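note to self — DONT lose this again. spent like an hour looking for the file last time. sequence + predicted structure for the chain T wanted, 379 res
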Amino acid sequence: MELREIKEGKARILVPEAERIYDAPVFYNPVMALNRDVSVLAVRVLRVGNALDALSATGIRGIRYALESQVEEVWLNDINPDAFELIIRNVSLNFGLSPERSEKRALFKGLRELVVTNLDANLLMDENFRHFEFVDLDPFGTPLPFIDASLRAVRRKGYLAVTATDTGVLCGAYKSACIRKYNALPLRGELCHETGLRILLGTIARYIGKYDMGFEVLLAYYRDHYFRAFLRLKDGAKAGDGTVEKLGYVYFDQKTGRFEVEKGLLPSRGKAHGPMWLGELKDDSFVEALLEEAEKSELAEKKKALKFLSILNGELDIPLFYELSMIAKRNGLEVRKPDHVVESLREGGFNASRTHFSPTGIKTDAPLEGVVGVLRALQ
């Protein structure tokens, strides 16, 4: 395996040479640097004592946790034997340590304790029941095969970070796959990225309840080709009930762009999309802490991280948004700058903001007629 060295954040990582990243014997995606930046910031803000990167590949995520946060114990795992050997090399490269190792495990002891394993992720998590304060799932495609085991491996008041890259499924391009995998009917079209994220969260909400646990969303977002969520777990049956109570459905009229949301286990009428999460997508204090940490941190893509977190920080946290380009098209109007529409809505007494889900989308508590009226006034 031919390797080259790259630098990301404070880490130096050996990655395979390949014409296409998907052809490499061990996967490394440079596009996910921002994802890892935000994850490092989250581990720093939450001040976790130990963390598991369950699907490590090159090991870059877990190594950055060890280098760039206060975490004392990091586990890095991959079922691929080539990845296992590469992770060991990368840990040695960054920490100058030699491991105590066996066929499937390597232990590095220094200022941080790093454990590298070559196991099926579900087996590893089941063998370490309630051991981890922070579990990170960053798979290729759907995280669903690992959710149950992760909810047993993480402490009952711990943290779960989840990435999903099967956006085509969650966004409705493959409706039958979404129904089969997530037990939810997706919504294809202008709202697909937000509803896809909410379907992912809604599925985790249904998984976690059977353990008499619930969660609160610290931050959940869409970026590039993936969804990402940071969840703080809450212990007890009441917490599980409270989480399930935030599930519901979305009704969307393709002709007008009008949407409605309805909380409840079952929909009251036809053409309902979901079930999906209708609760919060962020904790304001957590996002503000990420921003403060980003400003003083060395990151791989600091400017991008600051800009993105600033957008998330200012975004109105309510379900769904209006896509101005589509609303203008439906009503025979010219598209106007979202900032101008937001300003006009605020002057009219409504709450409004830009949204990270779309460069021409806005979130507001104004009705559709109010948004159309503002667009008309700005012609």
